[in-house]
Structure formats: C-alpha cells, structure tokens
Amino acid sequence: MAIQKQEQCTDEESLYRLAELFKIFGDSTRIRILHALSQKELCVQDIADALEMTQSAISHQLRVLKQAALVKSRRDGKTIYYSLADDHVFTIMQQGLEHVCE
C-alpha cells in the first residue's frame, strides 16, 4: 500500500515540494528547534532559552516551520505552545540522526 501511494506521489510537483521540504531541514537552527520540540511541547521563550537565542529569531524560524507544516501550535491563555506537527516529522528527525550517527 505504501509503495502504491509513493508511486502516485512522484510527479514533478511532488518532487519539487520534497526538495523544498529538505531545504527547510537544511538550516541548523530549524533542526535544533525541531529536536527540542521532539522532546516536549515548548513556548517561544523556552525554545529561546534552550537554544540561547532571541525570541525574535525563534519566532521567525517557527513561522517557517509552521508554514511547512512541520510544527503546530496551541494557545493556552496568552502563551502559545509549539510541538511537532505529526509523527512523520519525528520519524524524519530520528532516521536522519540514525544515518549521521552510523
């Protein structure tokens, strides 16, 4: 079943979108944010503190990640919490780490 779906998803547009997805993964700050979010849900300040960066820089990268459907957010009062969008993002991160650690 997965192979059939993969075959249906190899048109030029899908391959272009895949290349764009990997460009987003090509930024070390975004990878560090995704890694932090793979551990637990965090707000911008928590991410900024963990990565020793400004809230502004983190917010910019979160916007990119959200537009790419790699992270999602939820509001709790005035605070917005971010997490990985789904298990696919976690799997991509895990498999990438396994590959570079071999």
Characteristic key phrases:
14% strand, 102 residues, Arc Repressor Mutant, subunit A, single chain, 3-stranded antiparallel beta sheet, 68% helix, 3 strands, 6 helices, globular, alpha+beta
CATH architecture: Orthogonal Bundle
Mean pLDDT, to the nearest integer, reads 92
Q: Provide the domain count.
A: 1
Shape: globular
The CATH topology label is Arc Repressor Mutant, subunit A
CATH class group = Mainly Alpha
Q: What is the first-to-last residue Cα distance?
A: 29 Å
**Number of helical segments with 4 or more residues:** 6
Strand order of the largest sheet: 1-3-2
| Uncertain segments | none
The run of helices and strands is HHHEHHEEH
Q: Which structural class is indicated by helix and strand composition?
A: alpha+beta
Main pleated sheet: 3 strands, antiparallel
CATH superfamily: Winged helix-like DNA-binding domain superfamily/Winged helix DNA-binding domain
Number of strands: 3
- How large is the radius of gyration? 15 Å
What is the helix content? 55-70%
- The fraction of residues in strands falls at 5-15%
